[in-house]
Each structure stands twice: as structure tokens, then as C-alpha cells.
Amino acid sequence: MHTTISKKTTIIDKFNSIIELSEGDTNEWKIGIASLERASLLNVKDEITYQKCGIDEAKEILFHFLAQGVQTCNMSKSNFNGIYLYR
């Protein structure tokens, strides 16, 4: 349980840093849950960050960023194995 919370916090911190360093609006970013193969099919303008994690962690991270104004991307969750952030 502690490892899961630590990993979730690490991913949130990493994604927050990326958004802050971009010096852009939060709503320029999109976040979603999918497999790496599916995420590679996205129309990415600038950059993408993919982090492997469990589905429960990914959902909590997703809701955290949706509350901050990050847009969601509705990719298929079949063969799920991580969460991604891109713009």
C-alpha cells in the first residue's frame, strides 16, 4: 500500500513539473489511460510522457489532473498498462 501511494505521488509530481516547466496553460495538456502502443497513436503536437502504473493508481492520478483543468483523452483502456500526459 505504501509503495502504491509513493509511486502515485511520484507520478503526480513528475506530471506537475512537466506542466509547470512548459509555462503554458494547464488546459493545453491532455491526460489519459491506455497501453503504450495505443498512446503512440496519438496526435502529439509537442511532447508526451508515459508512465507505467496500475489501473487504480492511474484513475486516481487522472482525476487529480482533471480537477486542475487538464483535458482528458478518451483512448481505449483495453490492454491498459499506464497513464500518459501530452500536448
SSE map:
Layout: H1 2-22, E1 30-34, H2 36-39, E2 48-52, H3 55-67, E3 71-72, E4 82-86
Parallel strand pairs: 1-3
Antiparallel strand pairs: 1-4, 2-4
Helix pairs in contact: 1-3
Briefly summarize what is shown.
The protein has three helices and four strands; from the N terminus they run αβαβαββ. With 87 residues, it is of the alpha+beta class. It has a four-stranded mixed β-sheet with strand order 2-4-1-3.
Task: Describe the protein.
The protein has 87 residues and is of the alpha+beta class. It is built from 3 helices and 4 strands, in the order αβαβαββ. The chain has helices at residues 2-22, 36-39, 55-67; strands at 30-34, 48-52, 71-72, 82-86. The chain has a 4-stranded mixed sheet with strand order 2-4-1-3. The longest helix is centred in the N-terminal third of the chain and has 21 residues, at 2-22. The radius of gyration is 12 Å and the shape is globular.
Helical element count?
3
Indicate the proportion of strand residues.
15-25%
Structural class: alpha+beta
The ordered H/E elements are HEHEHEE
The dominant shape is globular
> Biggest β-sheet, characterized?
4 strands, mixed
Which spans of ≥5 residues are poorly predicted at pLDDT below 50? none
Average pLDDT across residues?
86
Ends distance: 31 Å
Radius of gyration: 12 Å
Helix content: 40-55%
Give the neighbour order of strands across the main sheet: 2-4-1-3
> Care to count the β-strands?
4
